[in-house]
Design brief:
With about 190 residues, the chain is α/β, with parallel strands linked by helices. It is built from nine helices and seven strands. It has helices spanning about 20-30, 40-50, 55-60, 60-65, 75-90, 95-100, 120-125, 160-165, 170-189, and strands at about 10-15, 35, 65-70, 70-75, 110, 130-135, 155-160. Helix 1 (about 20-30) crosses helix 9 (about 170-189).
Length: about 190
């Protein structure tokens, strides 16, 4: 029997609050994929240079809060997106995955939880797959920096457990089953 390896990179895209972070947790727990925060450089800058807290830049509630910087009020999520736009304006849209994949162990498997714009092309060109997480309760944000190239998507997982089940544990289990089945299918394509 021939061994078919898992893809080295699993890049996740989807609207904000669609379940990408939960998908990363599942991939870590069930398949030993190391979760990489592909926006860490932006979060680190916002915390270390602009005075935001880690809660402000990592949690859903924190990203919805506003911060005043030099007399201008920013929604934290928008601030991070605009910082990303500046880097992409200088180096191109693949700068975030380029930074995130530098110095990774070559024999490990990694997941990336916030693939945007054409960044899926980077991951696919480097042996990865792109999985879109769609949640009917997570509409588009309206921010251009949250859009992603649907032509890069290898597969889509519908994360509708919150609609189908009253129990959050049952909803997460449904996402787990669907995500793992999708990864297994992609592994054999």
């Amino acid at each position: 029997m021939q061994y078919i390896p898992y893809p080295r990179f699993i890049a996740l895209c989807g609207n904000p609050t669609s379940g990408k972070s939960t998908a990363q947790e599942i991939l870590s727990k069930d398949l030993n994929y190391l979760p990489i925060d592909d926006g860490h450089v932006l979060r680190e800058f916002a915390v270390n240079k602009l005075g935001l807290s880690w809660d402000d830049v990592q949690t859903i509630d924190g990203k919805l809060r506003e911060t005043e910087i030099l007399g201008k009020t920013w929604q934290n999520r928008k601030l991070l997106g605009e910082l990303g736009n500046v880097l992409e304006g200088m180096f191109g849209e693949h700068i975030m995955p380029f930074i995130a994949t530098r110095n990774l162990y070559p024999n490990a498997f990694y997941s990336f939880g916030s693939v945007r714009k054409t960044q899926g092309q980077f991951f696919r060109a480097n042996g990865g797959v792109v999985i879109e997480i769609v949640n009917p309760l997570a509409p588009p944000s309206g921010n251009a920096f949250d859009e992603y190239d649907r032509g890069c998507i290898s597969a889509t997982v519908i994360n509708d457990g919150q609609v189908r089940y009253d129990d959050p544990i049952q909803a997460k289990e449904q996402l787990r089953k669907d995500l793992l089945a999708t990864v297994e299918r992609l592994r054999h394509e």
